[in-house]
## 1
Amino acid sequence: MNKLLVFFAFIAASFQVSSQTHFTALKITPEYPMQGRKLSFEYNKNTSSLIKQPTVEVVIYQFTENGVKALDPVIIKKGTIYSGSIILDSNANCIAFDFSSGKEKDMNGSKGYIVPVYKKNKQPVDVYYAWVSSLYNGYGEYLFRLPNDADKGLAVLEEGLKENPLLKNNIGFFNSYLNALSSAKKKEAAPFIAKELENFEAKGNLKEAGYNTLIQWYNKDKKKAKADSLTVAMKAAFPEGDWKKNEAGAAFYKEKDLAKKVILFQEYVAKYPSSEANQSQIDNFKSQLALAYGKAKDFKSYYEWSKGLAKEIVASNNNNLAWAMAEADEHLEEAKKMAADASSYTKNELQHPTEKKPDEYTAKQWEDQRKSSYAMFGDTYAFILYKLGDYKNAYPIAKEAATINKLKDAEYNERYALLAEKVIPTADAKKLIEQFVKEGVATAKTKEALKNLYVKEKSSENGFTTYLADLEADAKNKKRQEIAKSILDEASPKFSLKDFEGKTLGLDDMKGKVIVVDFWATWCGPCIASMPAMNKTLAKYKDNENVKFLFVDTWESVENKLQNAKEFMNKKNYPFYVLMDNDNKMVADFKVSGIPTKFVIDKEGKIRFKSIGFSGNDDALVDELTTMIELAGK
């Protein structure tokens, strides 16, 4: 056996995933659950990480050939034992248990509670392996916060191949396997992947999906000539294949001229008429055209193209356009009309849903999602009414939107506060906003509203700075304590990337410095939204040589990634030091599953903090990173 094969055999053995599952806190009956059969379970809170929690919520995710289903089983509680049962679907291949109490989760260490569905020979059904690999490679984190673990994702596929080597003939499994190799072992896996691609092609009788997989991987490996030759062969073998439809769709998305875009749409529909399989794509094209007309302020055409689209799509488009017009302070009456329609639709769906519950949501998750949509769209409507001076009608809508978010979202609180200043008695409004400031859920505009009320009450702004600082002190101390509790102690992965000038910078080059790493992309809306706050934080430390900020551009799919990133930064005019993660190696090494994600690394090269996403509150992000930097510096 060659050294490379020995290496991968060692990896698989090191992370072996047993085909028969045994858990300390969870017992399932039968031991080998099968498709279409009953599965019973018992969960003992006292032998789990939730031992100190008063109650436990149980959700079961069932993975089938058609996707994922979230189940709310009827739970019987006896002392610390939670029991129940479900009937597995006839095409089920894997199930995962999610045990939680508030924000606390029992993740069975970091392995999760994942149970195979078995065949009669007591071996997992074939599709089990690909599903579990996807759970360890990001999908599990999305569903129920299962930690990413690329090595486990690879190991479970290796186990599947050990049981059934023919799984590689399945294009879905084969692609999952190559992705898992790439994620777990990065460039070390490159020659192994190359051999796998060669063997796959040599089998012959390629389907279109097989060609596409080969083309994708050869392009990824920058073997353009090979990818191009396979593309020619695929088109010759399948002259009316899916590639033709995909190219027509890509041309539509790429076209910027609206008139030409309409022509491309008409040509697409003429060649690929509406059908059950094609309708969602056509609706997406129509939605894109409607939005384009809306942004061009051709509202007549916007409404024409919106006809026939699903109500939830129209409501979302209405909300997006209305918010943009409100922020630009233009066409406010039209924005009001759109926002009113969107808000009314989501309120009706909250109270009397007409849409079917998505399979991947539990009943509670679905209700929470509908509440969130109504709060978002209602907040837009209230914002527009505020802009129009209709404070009385806007106030209860803004209050309800903020309340749905439990008064914990600073952006929603901002609209509530600005309208409270206008509508309710000064003392009541002041008390409300004071509480927002004390709890650290107040934006700069909310604090400005508090200042207005303070001056109104005192007839002077004298003393306001001290008064505000006193209010903020508790929130800052509380937040500092929360952040301190989240401190990590993980060695940072080594990295070495090039900047815009081609200069290489690595972790070892910054010994003795606190490093802030911000993973972002030019297409990532939340990443871009967080940049003003990152710029403010950068400005705070501009004279501190012991703190280094790295903005790592990753997950880009454009041809010239360097030029793309440079043009973006020139347009935005941010003084950020950008490193190019062109092969997505660094983002994988840091086990990032979504961006923006920020890391704070201490002077010894250890990851101390991780911050995922962006709440929309600039001040909160600046304060959070400042605290993380200070604690990491110690």
## 2
Amino acid sequence: MVRRRFSFAKQALALPAGVLLLVVGVGFALVARWFDGELTDQYATRALAVAHTVAADPAIAGAAAVDDPGHALPARAEAARAASGALFVVITNRRGIRLAHPNPQRLYEPVSTDPSEVLNGHDTMNVERGTLGLSARGKTPLRDGQGRIVGEVSVGFEAGKIRGYVLSQLAIAALLAGGALALGLGGSALLTRRLKRLTLGLEPHELADLVREREAVLHGISEGVLAVDAVGRVSVCNDEAARLLAVQPETGDPVAKLNLPPALLTAMAGENPADNLITVAGDRVLVATYRDVRRDGRDLGGVLTLRDRTDLENITRELDSVRTLSTALRAQRHEFANRLHVLSGLLQNGHRSEALEFLHAVSDPVPLADAAVDDPYLQAFVAAKTAEAAEKDVRLTLADTSWVGARVTAPVEVTTVLGILVDNALEAARLGARRPARVDLALLEDGDVLHISVVDSGAGVPETLGERIFTAGVSTRDGDGRGLGLALARQAARRLGGDVRLARASGDGHGAVLEAKLPGALA
């Protein structure tokens, strides 16, 4: 059986409440004790002051010295008691015999407490229990005109009266303490409620589990994850996202200041939906998906997930190259079979001279590509693209000024750039209005630098686009998955230290002119 945990909200409320109760309770007890002692001392001091006042009367001292033969002291003591509100005012002679007492039956009896200290000339203050009950007392010696001690004066205030006053004051203090306690508990409740709202109602152990799971998931998956809060600041960026985007953001950095592709910034701004959005970041092709995150109607930001499609894109282009070569080989196979059929027919019909002429015709020197281009990669590429262009009813020609005598040292980058430029040109020529449709290709060696120029007979690039055609997602034609080729071509060229540029958007009799410079591409 799983034991239910005491919720953090209740703990956060119970702990301050307990501390407040303890502090207020202990403080109240200490204040009550101090106040009780302080008030008792004040009443004892007051009793001593009244005793000093009574003892200062020479008539009272004179009467006490002769044991009050006229019985005047009880009346004088009662007057002083009534005036001061004391419990009693007692006057004794030198031997401690009462000469004045509130209870007449106690007259001429020894006092109930030891009078020796006072009769020896010392004032005393204490709380004692006598014949009239517990009281705060002040005692002082009674002296005659020559300063001789002739008795004592004892004044007491009832302890019950002191306790009643203390309790009345403590009741007021208790109300104030209760108010402070209620205010503290209310503040704790508000703090707990805010804390619960900030943590979305999750318990601390649940938050800890979430953090551990998040770290395990974020750093254990092959996808990049970039999360932003509601105001567009980075809250999470795992290692894969940092690698794919080539950024190292800190928590709290504005996502707008990161060097991200415009398509991603637009998607994260909510301007366009991002679901399997294909874009280019650096030298990588990425598939991005952006989702808004909400909880209980509250905007918490969004999460951008990234998948690396670079390898898949490279494989796709390699497959396209293989398909192009196979198409060219299939066309050559058909052509070769037709030639064999013609040669076989001539020989079977005895036309030996015509057969020899046909053999000479079909065994002419290699095509122009082989003569102008010595590298096998470029030869195969030009041959394959020529066959592909013919199938699209487009004529692909290699310019007479082309010359490449060195070997290609970066075949991947070269075929990527050349393939994208030629493919785009073939498509533009096929869709263009000019006929015959054509594409002119020029390849020129300059040391270890390979220069490429591609001209098509298409409609050209609109002036509103210009250099923007090299931005991922920007294309002259509509459709999903377009606008990546030229961005990839430029990135492949820049990996070699070169570039791809739009030389002319259009011109008389031709469409766009694209040029590429690939340093270090040739041996």
## 3
Amino acid sequence: MKVTSISRKLLTRVLSFYFILTVSVTGIQIIAEYFNTKNHINSELLTLEKTISGSLTRAVWELNTQQAIDISEGLVAIPMIKGITVTDEANNIITQLGDVIAPATLSIDNEENLSGEAQGVNSISDGLFGHSFPLIFEFSGRTTSVGRVTLLSSNAVIFSRIEVGIYFLIGNAIVKTAFLVLLFTLAFNKLLTSPLQELTEQIKQVDLDDPEASMLHSMNYEKNELNVLEDAYNNLINELVEFKDKLALSQQETSLANEKLDEQNIQLEQEVAKKTSYLSNTMLEMKVQQQKLLTHQQTLKEENIRRSNTEQTLLTTNKELKSSIIELNKAKERLLEAEKMASLGVLSAEVSHEINTPIGISITSVSYLLDTITHLQKNLNQNKLSKQTIERFIDNANQSANLLTTNLHRASELITSFKHVAVDQISDKIRLINVAKYLDEIIHSLHPKLKQTNHCVKVHCDKSIEIYSHPGAIAQIMINLIINSIIHGFEGINRGEINIDLHFTQQKLYLHYQDNGHGLSAQALEHLFDPFYTTNADKGGTGLGTHIVSNLVIDTLNGTIEASSVEEQGLSYNIIIPDMRS
């Protein structure tokens, strides 16, 4: 049988763990240095924005392409800048120098809001990242976006800045690891391997006929586990000697015990006779107890009659209680319906407020177009009309028409999405639903609510999934879950994220909803679907949101719902909805 060295195995495991730990820590330090340098470069890009924004805005507004190119060339000359792209308000490229991110690999951290704030740009495949910001020009007391600038840097810039630090970290880890290997090898050999070999040789020489001569005598004077093993072995030898002496004594005691056993048998027979007499007396006492039991039986019959009367009273009370429960359920249904309509009312108010923005922009565009037409008419009447004036009018008219068309189309989309969701919520009809398209409409109707925050909703769903079900119930479920995450889960969180994954298997729609909010404690999770249970009662919470979701999934959609959560790790729901095809 092959013998495995304990010290070698222990040394291997300790050093393996230390090597993994060293590699992990070094990797984390390199990654931290990378992101710190990247953040520093992003800060420098923000500083450049403040420096060049005014001059580029003026150059683009005045259609001074050469000035914009000169500024761009100056920026590309900076080692940190690997590429620059300047576009006008129609997203047409004015100038593009250096590296360019392919459109298919371009990702933007946040959608641009109406105030035109800057965006971060990342490209995974090209190794580029940077900063994108709008060019805002003020005229006639109004502001307008005349274009956009994208500044790009690359991972090569980052690595060039942290190259020396990476070499230092790797070299430091290698030196420490080599020194630790040498130190552990010497320590294990001196403290474990050599003492164990010495003990093994002494144990092999044990003599069972003379065990006292086989006791261990170690040269190790330190008090450690090996000394404990040595003492335990010597104690075993001492106990073996004592056991041999005790065995001889036990044989003598066994002979004496056999003689005493014979005497005990005689005494036992006498005791049996005494017990027989005692049993006779016990039988007489049992007859007396039987008489008492008959009397107690009569008492129990009377008690049974009294309990029957009490049971009849309880039945009557139970009927009255059932009636009260029925009334309570009706009241609860009316309250649930009121909560549902209140939610629809809040959504309607949010959508109405959101529509005002594109309509206001459209009115501004029309006003500006009318002013331009009036000015053109005035020049025409005064015979001052020139080709440059007509071209400027056509350009301004096209811009105003594009802006008007974009915002009216946006308002139309908002109204259409809200109309579909609202009509479905007040209708109980079953129809064929394209799940991906319908979820887009629901989330689009919640855009006014989401727009007030930095949270985002990500939906992962095959566009071909279709199901026969109650669209209104599905809309109410998704609205309640998303609003609950925004109000409760993301309280105090600046950038929350909601992920919704759906797939369709065996005529069932599987929906997994996950947010990265505060989550729930075990006690709160246990009461999550209970009516009127809320942790925000002082802020107007009714505690009916998740209860409505549970009722809609189970009663209306004939599905199932489960929730799981860990505090500060988010809340997730697993919902299964069957297809209702007849």
## 4
Amino acid sequence: MRQGQRWSQPRWSEKDCVLITYGDNVQFPGMTPLAALNAFLDRRLDGVFSMVHMLPFFPFSSDDGFSVSDFRSVNPQLGDWDDIAALAEGRSLMFDLVLNHISREHLWFVNYIRDETPGRDYVIEVDPSENLTMVVRPRSSPLLSRVRTPRGFKHVWATFSNDQIDLNYANPEVLLEFIDVMLDYIRHGARAIRLDAVAFLWKEIGTSCIHLPETHEVVKLFRTLVEFLEPGAILLTETNVPHAENISYFSDGDEANMVYQFSLPPLILHAVQQQTTKYLLPWVQSLEREKVPDGCTYLNFTASHDGVGLRPLEGLLPDDEINSFLDEMRKLGGYVSMRATTDGSDRPYELNISYFDAFRSGRGDKDPWHIPRFMLSQTLPLSMRGIPAVYFNALTATANDPLGVERTGMTRAINRRKWDGSELERLIDNPLSDAGQVFPEYIRRLRLRRGIRAFHPDAPQQLLDLQDGVFGLERCSLDGRERLLAIHNLTADTLTVNLPGRLDGNDRWYDALQQTVPDITAEGLRLRPYQVVWLLQMKS
């Protein structure tokens, strides 16, 4: 039955920004965590974010929600569907469709062990003597999990962990189950569906088992169904892989509406740490040569609930640069997780660190440029073509959580702190705290961005040819009436930036970010260390 179009406005605009959050990122006594989150959003973030990406809020057994034991229920420790409905009032929601695997506690897996339906044929049994060396892995853990059944010991496919059992999409019943789950999420108010770990969906022994043609066909099918049943809804693919592989999920405009810019977080972090645009610029330049299909765009982010992916640096940074960069991150309390390669060796897969702490200098509280560096890192993606996404713990300047790592045994927990709401609000209201300096300024910048038509996700983008350490983009509104220059100083030096042909003439300029006249002399634009300006042209 056709649902009809719930979202009649254009799919996106410059007013769009996504908040990424767990259902229990902020908690208040006497309220379910989901109700507490809703209260915090209403009180502190009203009108700032057009969409909230609700990380998995279903019953689960591990991996902070990504090992789902029931796809159709809300985790009672978070709340219920009424809480989700309340969150959807006045804003759009994004739900995770964790379609690659299930928890060992899921009924389907229990039924597999019992040789009962549904579930008996939902997982992938593999003879451990099979040659699986070609399989591309995101982890260094064993690919197969040994399971005791009444039929004897069996080995089943487990790409991510022993508690995350992969599903068999060669069985049409599995595909039909997840089509139904996806449509159920849309009925519950999801405007966007994030296809978690979708690249690994289809398995075929003797291949890499990543990005297989059958996987792309499944994404196309989901897109067709969404377009027909809920025009205006959005499909986002999560594929933490090198850039060319990542954007393959645009296909010809018939797969994902959005893909993550997975190369952006490590490139920005490296560029600011090293005070150079040497590696960032060629990648952004390559984006300008790409043809993004109509109805498609990028999701630009830095921090997230996961770590900083390192596979997206492949081919962009030399190995020695990556190793040196990771050594610096370890000194700041970060961890580096590994993945198994097809030649049997392990390579860095993910950096686990608070994105806020990643911009410290190592000099402790005496570093005057820590917060300016971090704010630069968060502002740069706001100027790029696409839709920005902000992680709750970046918005609140959350530091490394080593106790979380110790408590859970997961290095990703370093960036997944859950806040007592009263404590967080006291910090936000204290102008001397990290959160008190970052949160209000971050919100101010996000609000300003909403009013700049040149930041429309589809508006043209041109990279400026500037000196090393300065990153500049020119954006133009779709109607051509608004022109903006976004200039970023990634260094600790005061610089004068020459912008030939752009600051000449009788036009006057206004810095929309600082709400002031920019410091422009005959020599050029003067920038303080880590300063960002959004120059709007004002006709004389």
